Amino acid sequence: MRMVFDASVLEMPFTGIAKTSLLLYRECLAQLPGLTVTGVHRKAVAGEVPAGVALARGGRLFSAALWRSHYLPRQVKRQRAAVVHFPWSGGVPPGLSDCCVVTTIHDVLPLEIPGGFKNIRDEQRYRHDRQRDIDRSHILFTDSEYSKRQLQGNFSFRSEPIVNYFGPTLESNGKDHPVTDAAESSYLLYLGGYDRRKGIVELLQVFLELRRQEKLRCRLLLAGKSHYFSEELRRLIVAGKENGYVRELGYLPDGELVALLRNALALVYPSRYEGFGLPPLEAMHAGCPVITTSRTSIPEVCGDAALYIDPRASAEFGEALVAVENDAALRARLREAGFRQARKFTWEKAATTFLGEIRRFRTRMEEQ
């Protein structure tokens, strides 16, 4: 079976969607002998792809819109693909009726987050584009039961979306990577981009106040792409860095992230809106206690293995941070519960679900 995927997502620095897509394809190749997987893209790819995943670059002279609407469908037909996958929440062009069109819509968070659109016209365009992607797809996957409910509440479907959970993406190749700075021996870790919905402002407010009151002794490390979306966020980070309490690490290689998670007091992830919630899964997989929220999809990922807080309840939030720093037994319980919970999420299961739905669709088509 030949499968082509829209590799546009690989043209940017590899983050969650790129990593999860490639790990899914790697496991599909392992499970299905004879499968070929080829990513079609216009610009240079920003990272390495797993062995067995082929890349076909072309159409560089096309605009992005023309590449998607004309070049990509022609390449799918030229390669005689039985399946074409759109892993990056849509962008499905017309003219793909001769193969099985599979789309992954990870979430519809802009419809849920207050102020998710600049104006009503942007929201209408978003709704139109997502419904068009759904209508052009034969199989639709999403990341969680929560995202499935949100999709069904906002769009119409010929058949219901299929939930296909991620597995962890961080791999250490069996080696323990030492923490680069030995002085960072006691720290809380925030992992992810700086985004208002992820509660990073509330985290900094609570953390810095506890440090000021000398109720915490640890540092706070921020790993991920920095984006100062407000002057308040910038001010908090600057104040924390000047006092030596906060350190920004930016993007880090997987091995360093694994080491940071293994050695952290806890991952603190006070996000209010998630379609899945990959950082808590990475933390549990690495043996790192998790402090997070019970919002949106996160309880599906963390189960009973996390210490849940309300990021708006500063006293409760602060008590959780202090407890994790001071209570080794609590950390041990969360660590062991996290290991058990993380084992429920595997790429073997994800690939089995992905390939199984494709097989069922192709069987139905052959019977008609």
Structure summarized in a few sentences:
With 368 residues, the protein is an alpha/beta fold. The chain has twelve helices and 13 strands. Mean pLDDT is 94; it is low at 173-184.
Describe it for me?
Helix 1 crosses helix 12 (347-367), helix 5 (200-212) packs across helix 10 and helix 8 (278-286) crosses helix 11 (328-342). The chain folds into two domains: 2-167 and 346-367, Glycogen Phosphorylase B (Rossmann fold, 3-Layer(aba) Sandwich), CATH 3.40.50.2000; 187-342, Rossmann fold, CATH 3.40.50.2000. Mean pLDDT is 94; it is low at 173-184. It is built from twelve helices and 13 strands. A seven-stranded parallel sheet has the order 3-2-1-4-5-6-7, sandwiched between helices. A six-stranded parallel sheet has the order 10-9-8-11-12-13, with helices on both faces. It is elongated and about 70 Å long. The protein is of the alpha/beta class and 368 residues long. Strand 5, helix 3 and strand 6 (139-142) form a beta-alpha-beta unit.
Which range does the strand content fall in?
5-15%
Instruction: Indicate the CATH class of the largest domain.
Output: Alpha Beta
Distance between the termini: 20 Å
Largest sheet report? 7 strands, parallel
Helix content: 40-55%
Which fold name is given in CATH as the topology of the largest domain? Rossmann fold
CATH architecture descriptor name of the largest domain = 3-Layer(aba) Sandwich
What's the total count of β strands?
13
Domain tally: 2
The H/E string reads EHEEHEEHEHEEHEHEHEHEHEHHH
User: Which strand order does the major sheet show?
Assistant: 3-2-1-4-5-6-7
Structure class: alpha/beta
Q: Count helical runs.
A: 12
| Silhouette | elongated
Let me know the average pLDDT.
94
Model regions low in confidence, pLDDT < 50 over at least 5 residues? 173-184
